[in-house]
Write a structure and sequence with these properties.
It is a single chain. The chain is mostly beta strands. It is built from 1 helix and 28 strands.
């Protein structure tokens, strides 16, 4: 076992034994199931080409994966059974292409962005069918978050530099709000009052009031802020900066930067990856997932082929985990995969 992997295993061994980190490997069309009790990869399951984002179902056992594609647009979702370590089904979304962000609306339905259709799709996962298509009328509709009551969705549109509010009960677009060039990452406050948006080209973070749909605050985050996650208590905002190769920690109320956590990793390769070598020696941190205990976070370093474990109490790197090639989207499941 690699020393850093052993370190990560020791750090997570105190957590509950039945826990799995699902890591999507974009360049391998696969999902790694990492047992957090041991830090070991217990299984690697096939997905569609270019799996980008993952979301855990309310049952805690199933994980839905968006297959974005590579040179050719993807047009499907993969449903995984984590406990059984198997693929349950593939859902065809055609004519809708480039699915990306996804969130479960309830135990049966999921909201999925489709860049190719400039839309938000409501998908019946059980039936494997698209129930509703809600146009955003914006370019590159990428990530999505839902209010706590799942009545409203917010979609980040990279190409339009905006966020679209969607009324899920009426199935219609409410309004698109310009936030900054390259609007991409999203996080929503625990009470649903605020949405945080990372604008990767503008190097900024914007806070939207979810009722008035007005911008209430904007702060800086260099460089190339790409994902956002709030800590469990909602007091701090974690932002992965792909170009500068770190995670910024902000006070969620004021957007004052409290810390920068370098990933301390070196790229293993750049060829055939989404961002290639445009960020130089950065390991290109993208996906972020906060553990339910609120003490740890996981950051996928897409050009270094590793997951950095962060200690959120010390704002420091605590260890590393390994999945496959070009890890990015992640999901947490409170079950352990079958197998050795």
């Amino acid at each position: 076992m690699r020393p850093v992997l052993l370190l990560a295993a020791l750090l997570v061994s105190a957590w509950a034994s039945a826990e799995t980190l699902v890591v999507l490997n974009k360049a391998e069309a696969s999902a790694s199931l990492i047992d957090l009790a041991s830090g070991r990869e217990r299984a690697r399951l096939p997905t569609g080409v270019g799996p980008h984002e993952a979301a855990t179902a309310p049952d805690g056992r199933r994980v839905l994966v968006s297959n974005y594609g590579a040179a050719d647009p993807g047009s499907s979702l993969t449903l995984l059974d984590v406990a059984a370590a198997k693929v349950l089904k593939t859902i065809d979304l055609l004519p809708h292409t480039r699915p990306h962000g996804l969130e479960w609306v309830d135990a049966r339905r999921a909201a999925v962005t489709a860049e190719g259709s400039r839309s938000l799709l409501i998908v019946d996962v059980e039936a494997g069918a698209v129930l509703r298509v809600i146009p955003t009328e914006q370019e590159l509709s990428h990530m999505v978050v839902l209010t706590p009551d799942h009545s409203v969705a917010f979609v980040a549109n990279i190409g339009s530099g905006s966020v679209t509010a969607v009324d899920l009960e009426k199935g219609e677009r409410r309004r698109s709000i310009p936030t900054g060039a390259g609007a991409e990452g999203l996080a929503i406050s625990n009470d649903g009052s605020s949405v945080y948006v990372t604008n990767r080209v503008a190097d900024s973070v914007t806070v939207l009031d979810t009722t008035s749909l007005e911008i209430v605050r904007t702060g800086s985050s260099a460089s190339f802020p790409i994902r956002a996650r709030l800590t469990r208590d909602g007091r701090r905002l974690l932002v992965s900066n792909a170009r500068s190769g770190d995670v910024a920690v902000f006070d969620a109320a004021t957007l004052q930067e409290e810390a920068r956590i370098p990933m301390v990793a070196t790229p293993v390769a750049t060829e055939g990856r989404i961002f290639g070598g445009q960020f130089g020696e950065s390991p290109v941190p993208v996906g972020i997932l906060v553990h339910p205990d609120g003490k740890r976070a996981f950051v996928a370093n897409t050009n270094a082929d590793l997951i950095t474990v962060l200690d959120l109490e010390r704002n420091a790197v605590a260890g590393r985990l390994y999945a496959g090639k070009e890890p990015d989207g992640m999901a947490y499941a409170p079950v352990a995969p079958d197998g050795p």
